[in-house]
Amino acid sequence: MRDILAEIVEAKKDVVAKAKEQLPLQQVKKLAKAHVGCFPMNYRFKANGWGLIAECKLQSPSKGNFGHHHTVAELAQVYEKAGAAMLSVHTDAHFLGRNEDIPMVKQLVSIPVLRKEFIIDKYQIYESRMLGADAILLIARILTAHQLNEYLQLVWSLGMDALVEVHDEEDMAKALATPARFIGINNRNLKYFQTTIQNTLDLLPVADRSRILISESGIHTLEEAKMLREAGLQGILVGEGLSTAPDVEAMTRDMAQL
Q1: How far apart are CA 226 and CA 210, in angstroms?
Q2: Taking the CA of residue 224 as centre, how many other CA atoms within 13 Å lie in the half-sphere pointing to its CB?
Q3: Domain extent listing, the chain
Q4: CATH superfamily of 4-256
Q5: Which residues in the chain come in under a pLDDT of 70?
Q6: What is the pLDDT of residues 136-151, one digit of tens each?
């Protein structure tokens, strides 16, 4: 059976290598300095008690194109209008993402933007700041413990925040060994991309409740969102469940206002 995450990471190595050839690291660092600012993402969720990260998602590697007619720009504006706390914007081609979508969305909305990407190299962190991202995703599964801590510190030094993503107890232990303040429990099996929110509920007993914990992926109904909030989560990240809803704005508003 396919290991989708391994395939994506392998392809990402070539993408990063080509990016370095087109725009060397020193130039990216220089351009990144133009995007000053500080966004402590975890504080916003702690202050509000609940937050929705709405993902501008067009397709997935496992399901292909979702077939809806919304663009990234349209979804971003609807999500903001409906009360999302943040946006998640893909830049990986497997999700029809583009780097250009980050600055484009930043021009359209005033809420913070998380760059959803498979970060495997420090180059991509400087690149994220250059693009204008307020925060990035760091996936514990694809980084060593040393890399995760080092990348987290670099993210903060550049005025961004990081959502550290975990899927199992080993990932959680790796995340908790760092000072990560914002942890997302991924409900998606990282090899086969199947989802169940039970994964979040199963991992809560080994989580550190003093950190901001959110649930990611596989959340399709208001009932599931309510269940996660009642379990003590401070937020959710929802992509397909919003972008394919019959009424995107209504579903976003309902999940944002729990």
Answers
A1: 21
A2: 20
A3: 4-256
A4: Aldolase class I (3.20.20.70)
A5: 1-2, 40, 59-68, 190-193
A6: 999 999 999 999 999 9
